[in-house]
Write a structure and sequence with these properties.
alpha/beta; UDP-N-acetylmuramoyl-L-alanine:D-glutamate ligase; 10-stranded mixed sheet; 14 strands
């Protein structure tokens, strides 16, 4: 089973021609409210390809929380590990998307700030399971869950997003580190690693120094993977007709990769499928509803080239 220890938000989506400058008001003709949060997004992406996935987090005692949980349940995500706060509302994110499909996001944590590691029973973490974490929950709670997973033999996948300064001993608990280019450079600065312009070189340094498989996503430029043994490879991004909406593509990658890993696929196959899935998600407006099913991914895989060694 995959245990996603992560955030749950209601997203308020607004489409604008361009992002506002400081002090400027930009009008949006309409808005939508959709389930989101990096934890919830990644859990749904995992469940979409058929992996048994449990989400652990917290929502408020409000309509937004109930709506999100009902949506996740309909899409085969197990939510029994999601608690309800008596004090805080469900987390909220304001997502602005411009005419080019890029996005700008502001997040209010709400009930996510109360998530506790004790919500994850140690008996569901073990050698046959995978823990997936992000950085929208309290760092100390992430650390506790990761330590338990590491000690019980579960694989740990950490998506360092949003990028924050984390202690090196926490990285020692991670098997697979997923970051984008900006996050990789910020982590390198924290760890005092020379962040060269060559992304492959940076990934290799992060992998070797921290004994972790480092995966750096580069948007339209594809993905680079470096293993601690010095081996590595890259894939280009999936060629798609038109980029409509990039929001949530990174979460789609993380959830799909973790699910593929759990299902016994090789590292290279898991990365390739995740790259395809995240590319497909950029062709549709919205986040969760844009995430592809296994059949969609397998069909698009035929157009992907083979990996290139780095």
């Amino acid at each position: 089973m995959i245990i996603v220890f992560g955030s749950i938000n209601m997203d308020v989506n607004m489409r604008v021609k361009r992002f506002p400058k400081a002090g400027e008001t930009v009008l949006a003709h309409s808005y939508t409210m959709t389930p989101g949060g990096k934890g919830a997004n990644q859990a749904l992406a995992s469940a979409r390809i058929g992996a048994k996935t449990a989400l652990v987090g917290k929502v408020g005692d409000d309509g937004a929380g109930l709506r999100i949980l009902n949506y996740l349940k309909r899409h085969e995500v197990m939510t029994s590990g999601v608690a309800t706060s008596e004090e805080m509302p469900t987390g909220m994110a304001t997502v602005m998307r411009d005419s080019a499909g890029e996005n700008s996001i502001v997040v209010a944590s709400g009930a996510n700030a109360e998530v506790n590691a004790e919500q994850v029973p140690s008996n569901i973490l073990g050698a046959n399971n995978v823990l997936l974490c992000q950085m929208e929950l309290p760092l100390e709670q992430n650390a506790l869950v990761m330590k338990t997973a590491h000690d019980t033999g579960a694989k740990v996948v950490m998506n360092l997003a949003p990028a924050i300064a984390i202690p090196k001993q926490l990285l020692a608990l991670v098997d697979y580190l997923i970051v984008n280019q900006i996050e990789a450079e910020q982590l390198a600065k924290t760890l005092k690693i020379d962040a060269q312009k060559n992304t492959a070189s940076l990934a290799q340094k992060l992998a070797k120094q921290n004994n972790v498989t480092c995966i750096v996503t580069m948007g339209g430029k594809g993905v680079v993977v470096a293993e601690p043994n010095g081996k590595g490879f890259s894939f280009p991004a999936l060629k798609i007709k038109q980029v409509v909406d990039t929001a949530g593509a990174g979460d789609c990658f993380c959830g799909t990769f973790t699910a593929c890993l759990h299902e016994g696929r090789t590292l290279m196959a898991a990365v390739k499928m995740a790259t395809v899935a995240s590319g497909l998600s950029c062709q549709t407006k919205g986040i969760m509803k844009s995430y592809p099913y296994l059949s969609d991914i397998e069909e698009a895989m035929e157009t992907m080239p083979e990996a290139v060694s780095i």
